[in-house]
Amino acid sequence: MSRDVSGGRPSQGNPRDAHWKKSVTNSKDVGTKRRGDKMLPKASEVIGAALDQRSILARARANIRARQILDPESREIWKQAGLSAWFEGFIGMVIVLNAAGIGIGLTLQVEGKSTVPVQVLENFCLVAYIAELICRVFAIGFVCFRDHWVKFDSFLIVMGVLVDWILDPILGAEGVASQFGPLMILRMARLLRLAKIMQLFKHCREFWILVRGFLNCVNMMLYVFLVLFVCIYCFSCLAMELITKHRLNDEDEEFREQVQKYFRSLPNTMMTLVRFACLDNTSEVYYILVEKDAWLSMYFLFMILTVSLVFFHLTGAVIFSTTMDKNLEEDDTAKKVEMDKWANLVKDLKEMFSRLDGDGSGFLSRAEFEQMHPSDMQMLARALGGGLSPSAIFDSLDLDRSGEISITELFDGIWEAIASGDRLGTKRMEKQVEMMHVRMSEMSAIQEGILMTHKNLEQQMSTQKILEQQMSQLVEEMRLARLSNNKNNNDDNNKVAAAPPPAKLGQSAAAPKSKSAAKRSTSQPGRAPESVSEVSGVGQNVSERL
Q1: Biased-composition ranges for Low complexity (predicted)?
Q2: Cβ distance 299 to 193 under 8 Å?
């Protein structure tokens, strides 16, 4: 079997070599590392006795460590560490110390004192910057170099290593440094570390608006400088004609001294007019000249209005407008990014709901929700802004205590928690208070219905009492009517029995009377039943009304 010339690693193409490579490089955890340790003796036997087992072991473990570092879970840990508050605070403290050390070091160098403590501090800050860059690479990957801040940090690190760790040890003495003077310009590059102070204020919106406005207006400032130079040049040429060649230069000594001081040549005149652009004690320049020749006031007035007032104010307005437009553009971009983030979150939540809903019923039970994958749980924790357990999240979303949550309840609860910035527990309390209010409203409506029913029953009971009183009165009238009828019948019978027997004629005449009396006696008892039937009819009507 052939080996590589460098020693140790066998050449490709052999199945055993491929098996060796797979066993060494595809290890992912500690158990794999142990299996690799067990397979190393077998691999060394296959490769040959000349292969050093310790070198294979070290190489395999290094490969395992590299794979563990680049593992997605490990990268997530690095990312959380790099974005944590304590890490940002530590880097901010290092930046402040580095900025203070640069100023102290320059002061000590001017005074001729020792700068060893400052050099130690600079080396510490440089190591911290290197650690920050390594953390970014492990957390995000080499994609982080697309950021301009990371590029700037990398440039500062390279210049710091070149100056502090290479040039300073070689060119430390002043005599040697004087021989390599042009290279010592690189020492000034460490002053660029002061620009890292802006990283401390990148979270401050007001400060960042100023810095971003300045950076965005760099190109505009170049054009402003060009226009200002042209204006000053034109006014300088006009001043040479009106002031330098003025007739009073030969007649008035004071006028000539003022011209020789401020307007003796074109460069000197341009430097003088720069004072007018900045409004730097301009009366000292034009007072004597205007006093000697009043017509020169028109020139200076036009100069002040054009360059000092209109030009600079117009430039400031343009810069302000550009900055505000840039702020609006960034706000729109931030809103778009936020909406895209929410859209992706909704999509992820929908996919998560589909994965959890195994039976496809459209509802999630507590058992299904608690079987959530850790990655889905991390997504919910980031969305809700807290480390809640699946059972706590389920209880917060299950407001009606039905033991199941629908996709609508899931989306409404999480969306409201994200939009309001509150935790899910707060939204749950609000929903519970709202449900209690609804239930209290329902209970009040039920109580009002019960009160109405009670009033109706009282009215019916009062009506029933009135009907009972009327019934009792009718019964009493019936009893009195029967008693009066019986009494009348008894009186008639007694009268008939007590009458003497008449004569024959009288008998014939009395016969009709007896018949009429009998007829009346038979007809009188018949009236009572009629009245009883009437009373029974009234009672039936009363019972029907009841």
Answers
A1: 508-523
A2: no
User: Under a CB-based contact definition with an 8 Å cutoff, are residues 378 and 348 in contact?
Assistant: no
Number of domains in the chain: 4
Tokens of 223: 């054009």
pLDDT, tens digit, for every residue of 202-229?
Answer: 667 777 777 777 777 778 888 888 888 9
pTM for this predicted structure: 0.44
> What burial class does residue 137 get, using C-beta atoms within 10 Å of its C-beta: 0-12 exposed, 13-18 middle, 19+ buried?
middle
| C-alpha span between 274 and 288 (Å, rounded) | 19
Structural domain that includes position 128: 79-203
Q: Which residue type, as a one-letter code, is found at position 414? A: I
- Assign residue 228 the CATH number of its domain: 1.10.287.70
Residues 184 and 274 in one domain: no
Residue type (1 letter), 470: Q
Neighbouring residues of 432: CB distance < 8 A, sequence distance ≥ 6: 399
Based on the domain organization, do 253 and 183 belong to the same domain? no
Which of the 8 DSSP states describes residue 294? Answer: T
DSSP label of 84: S
pLDDT digits (tens, 9 = 90+) for 43-68: 445 444 444 555 655 665 655 555 55
d(CA 195, CA 153): 10
> Could you tell me if 145 and 34 lie in one domain?
no
